[in-house]
Protein: Putative Holin-X, holin superfamily III
Organism: Paractinoplanes atraurantiacus
Amino acid sequence: MTTHTEQQPTAQLVSQLSEQVSTLVKDELTLARMEMVEKGKRAGTGAGLLGGAGVMALYGVGALLVTIGAVLALFMPVWVAALIVTVVLFGAAGVAALIGKNQVKQALPPEPKAAMESGKRDVEAVKGAIREGRHA
């Protein structure tokens, strides 16, 4: 291919432009797809952690009930152990919930920002090339 556009016929330039635009669109769609897959994985991880936090909180409620039963039944050191288990379960649920919330927050809104910015730059480059062509 000749690099000087002045030496090429218009039909050949239009053909090259068509091929390049087609390639550009395909590349932008590939970038957008890759970005959406990454965000989907992050949202899935966050949702899983939030679900895990819910399960741990449910176990925490069960442990709290056991603790209350132990306190009422014995007023002995057994309830202290049950209370420690309850606090640890709720603490773990809180940590998992915070991590899950951050994962989901990073994934939303699910829009391919990098691909959109790249597409905008491409459009501006084409507009600039067209303007330069008119002034030449």
About this structure: The chain has a mean pLDDT of 79. The chain has two domains: 12-75, 77-135.
